[in-house]
Amino acid sequence: MADNAPVLKAVVPAAGLGTRFLPATKATPKEMLPIVDKPAIQYVVEEAVDAGLTDVLMITGRNKRSIEDHFDRAYELEEALDAKGDAERLAAVRESADLAIMHYVRQGEPKGLGHAVYCARQHVGREPFAVLLGDDLIDARDDLLRRMIEVRQRYGGSVVALMEVEPEQVSAYGSAAIEATDEEDVVRITDLVEKPPSGEAPSNWIIIGRYVCDAAVFDVLEKTPPGRGGEIQLTDALRTLAETPADQGGGVYGVKFRGRRYDTGNKLEYLRTVVMFASEREDLSAEFLAWLRDFCAERGGAGNG
């Protein structure tokens, strides 16, 4: 029988060093890099709120203070904008502070995603909770997280988001062995492999950065030894839960996601994301796309110049 406890809390790991974006991330958290004019981390919090999760715990580390400042009130800035009568920018500044009830805890040591999630145990308690990774942005028009919560309420256990990729891409992600259920977009997961060697993945379905976890994951993470890369892997804990009886919080399910996902984890994908977001902005798209077409024409097409 499924555990129908509501999912009310979101955990957002944001303690990484962002080394792929140095020197920009020497003093600025990678999560605060802008997608046009809004930091990437705000899109993630907005997604949680849109799915009904207004209690958000951010797992941070050193040099992440600006994340806390972003989701706090900025009274001097607000007063200056108010005095200028700039209502549009004033609303944008206040929006981030009014999004959710924000909490923060420091990871302390970079021991991996599993350890970051484990740091949330006191705040979450024995409730199911969502985990949203900041490198993955899900288009606001796609209700992935809400669907995952529905699946958790029906089946119990934990739920991960899956996307199908080309075979040569699988080794960069965690891969899932899956069994069909009576719902086309829902599968039962029988095994998980973190970054499998080329040709050894159980399927072409990879885990992307959205999870709905049963609280039993904390008990498993406490006993999970460091895995790939010497870090405590959330994937390893979920593999254990996939083999755990349902009455002990076990069972892992996957939601096959075929919507729009934007990757901001490396420079090339980050730039693509900025271009795609700018191309859909009503206030920017016409002028930006016209310039982009001219720019590409001048460069002679992709791969030249």
Detailed description of the structure:
The strands form 3 sheets. A 5-stranded mixed β-barrel has the order 8-11-9-10-12. Strands 2-3 form a two-stranded antiparallel ribbon. The chain has a two-stranded antiparallel sheet with strand order 7-13. It is globular, with a radius of gyration of 20 Å. It folds into 2 domains: 9-262, Spore Coat Polysaccharide Biosynthesis Protein SpsA, Chain A (Alpha-Beta Complex); 266-305. The relative contact order is 0.15. It is α/β, with parallel strands linked by helices. It is 35% helix and 22% strand.
Q: What's a concise summary of this model?
A:
This protein is α/β, with parallel strands linked by helices and 305 residues long. The chain has 11 helices and 13 strands. It has 2 domains: 9-262, Spore Coat Polysaccharide Biosynthesis Protein SpsA, Chain A; 266-305.
Q: Quick one: overall form?
A: globular
Strand order of the largest sheet: 8-11-9-10-12
Beta-strand proportion: 15-25%
Gyration radius, in Å: 20 Å
Question: For the residues shown, what is the average pLDDT?
Answer: 90
Q: Give the proportion of residues in helices.
A: 25-40%
State the separation between the terminal residues, measured CA to CA.
61 Å
Order of helices and strands: EEEHEHHHEHHEEHEEEEHHEEHH
CATH level 4 superfamily of the largest domain: Spore Coat Polysaccharide Biosynthesis Protein SpsA, Chain A
Unreliably modeled segments: none
* Structural class by helix and strand composition: alpha/beta
What is the fold-level CATH name, i.e. the topology of the largest domain? Spore Coat Polysaccharide Biosynthesis Protein SpsA, Chain A
Largest sheet: 5 strands, mixed, barrel
